[in-house]
Amino acid sequence: METEALIELLERHGIKSTPNRILVASTLEEASRPLSMTEIEETIGTIDKSSVFRTLSLFRESHLVHAFEDGSDVVRYELCMSESNEDDDTHVHFYCEACQKTFCLYDIPVPKVRIPDGYKAETANYIIRGFCPVCAKKMSR
After folding, report:
1. Closest Cα to residue 29, out of 54, 61, 64?
2. Is beta strand 127-130 parallel, antiparallel or unpaired with respect to 92-96?
3. 0.85 cut: is pTM over it?
4. How many structural domains are present in the chain?
5. What are the backbone angles phi and psi of residue 35, rounded to the nearest 5°?
6. What radius of gyration, in Å, describes the C-alpha atoms of the chain?
7. Range(s) of the domain holding residue 98
């Protein structure tokens, strides 16, 4: 995604564009999978941990990123590509036990869950654990 498109995405979510915010959003957009805060820091290399944390917190509050635990005690982040300020692009994630990477499975239908009366769901994590194609192939050799 071009810088102009990232700036427009930030603005749609009510976020003022700054160089650091554009860099964090760009890093998430270019990643082929959800990233941990540590992976974001290592990829960027020029922004300190507290700036990355503040940026991700703002992005979460503004519904620009999804944050979820992938079952490995690590929070992962990915850009929310919806056109609204709601988390309406919920999808299934796959956590690889071998390489410890998490992947988005956009084409897998998210199961409907009926919760008891009186509860109000805010978000849900759909995580499948196993082995990604690359690791599964290595194991079969």
Report:
1. 64
2. parallel
3. no
4. 1
5. -120, 150
6. 16
7. 3-139
